Amino acid sequence: MPAHRLPRLTSLRPFDSPGYFAVWLGALISNIGTWMETVAMGVYVTQTTGRAEWTGAVAALSFLPAVILAPVGGALADRFDRRAYAGLGAILQAALAAVLTVLAFRGQLSVPVIGVISFLNGCVSTLTYPAFSALLAELVPPEDLHLSTSLNSAQFNLGRILGPTLAAVVLQAGGPAWALLANTLSFFAVLVALWRVVPPARDANAKREPLWDGIRRGITVARDDEDISLVLAATFFVAALVAPFIGLVPVFAIRELGQGAAATSLLVTCQGAGAVTAALGVGTLAELFGQRKLRGYSAATIAVLAGVYWLAPTLQVAAVCIFFLGANYLVLMSSLSASCQGRVPRELQARMGSLYSMVLGAGYALGVWFLGALADRMNLRFVTIGAAAIFLALVLTTRLLKPARFENEPLAQAEVQPFSDSAH
Q1: What are the TM regions of this chain, as residue ranges (predicted)?
Q2: Which single residue of 194, 206, 241, 310 has CA 20 to 30 Å from 296?
C-alpha cells in the first residue's frame, strides 16, 4: 500500500501541515536535553540538602516568573515576528544552560546558583513560550488546534521519557556536568527548525496596540468569557493541588520509596510514557465524548489517580500509577490550553496562551513549594493525598453549580472585535 494511503490516526493530522513537524521535532530534541538537566538538578538538590522544601523551591523558581511576566510575553508575541522571537528565547536559554555546564565541570555548582539560573531560565521561557505556542497554532488549521496542542504536549512528554533515561546513564557514567552539556547543545535543534519553517504571512497593515493596552485587552477578553474564566480557574487549582507530583518525584523516590536517581528517572519516564500514549488517542477521545465532557471526566479522575499514586507501596506500583496519572494529566491540560486559545481570534491566541501559562505557573510554583514545605513537617503522602482530595471536591462542587459547563457542546469562538483606533 502506498505510504500516502496508509491509515492515519486523527491525533496525528497536524503533521500534514507544512512546517509543523520540523518545529515539533526540534522542540522534542530540546526537551530531551531539558529533562536530562531537570533530573540531574533534582537529584543533586535532593541529595545535597535532604529537604523536600528545597527541591520544591528550586522547581518553583522556574515557574514563578510566569506570575508576572506571562501577560507581557503574550503581548510581545502578538506584536513581533513569532519565529524570530522564539529563536531569541532559544539562544538565551542555551546561554543559561552553558553557564550551568561550565560551573559543573569546574566543580562550582551549588544549590543557590541552580536556583538563580532556574529563575532566569523561567523568565526567558515565560517571555518567549507564548510566541512558540502561537507559532504552532499558526501552522495548523483552526479545527486541528486541540490536536496540535496535544501533540505539543506529547513531544514534551516524549522528552520526559527519553531525557530521564539518558540522564540516568549519563549521571552514572560521568555526573551532572555531562547532562547539562547535552541540554546546552539541544537548543540548536530548535534554532535549526525555526530557520527552516515558513509561518503564514501576517497582515503588514494591521494596527498594533500599545503594549499595555494589548495586555489589558487580553485580560478583559478572558474575564468576560465565562468559559475561559472557568478554564483558567481549573488550571490554577490542578496546578496547585495535583501537578506538584511532577516536581516532588525525586522526594517520593528517595525518601518514601528508599531509592535513588535511577528510580527518579524511571518514574519521570513512566509519566512521560503515559502522556505520549494519551496524546495518540486524545483526538479519538475528543470525538467520542466531546471537548467539555472529556475535560470534566479527566478533571475528576486525575484527583483519584493522584491519590492512588501517592499511596503506592513499591517502586513498581508507583511506576504503573504514574503512567496512568501522566496520561490523564496530558488529556486534561491539553484540553484546558486548547480551550483558552480556541475561543479567540488568532491575533489574541498568544495572549490567551500567556494567561494560561501565568495561571499554570502561579499555581504550580505555589503548590510545589507549599506541599514540599508541609511534607518536611508532616507526612508526604498525607499532604499530597489531602491536596488531591481538595481538588476532587472542587470539581464535584463545580459540576453541581455549573452543570452546563460539563455538557457535550461545541465551544464557539469568542466574538472579539479586531483592534481599531475607535476601540480606544
Answers
A1: 20-45, 57-77, 83-105, 112-132, 177-198, 230-254, 260-282, 294-311, 317-334, 355-374, 380-401
A2: 310
